[in-house]
Amino acid sequence: MTSSPPFSAALFKSITAALGVETRPTTDAFGRPDFTINRAGMEQLRDGARAVGENDFADRIQQMLDAGGRKDLP
Question: Which of 12, 31, 34, 48 lies at 20 to 30 Å from 22 by C-alpha?
């Protein structure tokens, strides 16, 4: 059994930077770090996930893209 490192804003930023995805850092309503990514960046993130076999993650990104960026997804 393997374990993944805890997910953090720094880890997310390193992943998006490695994929060349442009992000804009923001803070959510609770004061937590967050990021804004445009549609092209989301497509890059999806394609990068598929390239390394993270198909469930890629599928979730595709769902967000299909929803047009709505935040009310389950």
Answer: 31
Q: Show the tokens assigned to 57.
A: 């993650």
SS3 state at 54: coil
Please state the pTM of the whole predicted model: 0.72
d(CA 14, CA 3): 19
Given a contact cutoff of 8 angstroms between Cβ atoms, the answer to whether 65 and 43 are in contact is: yes
Task: Evaluate whether 28 touches 36 at the Cβ level (below 8 Å).
Answer: no
Q: Token match 């967000």: residue?
A: 64
CB 41 within 8 A of CB 18: no
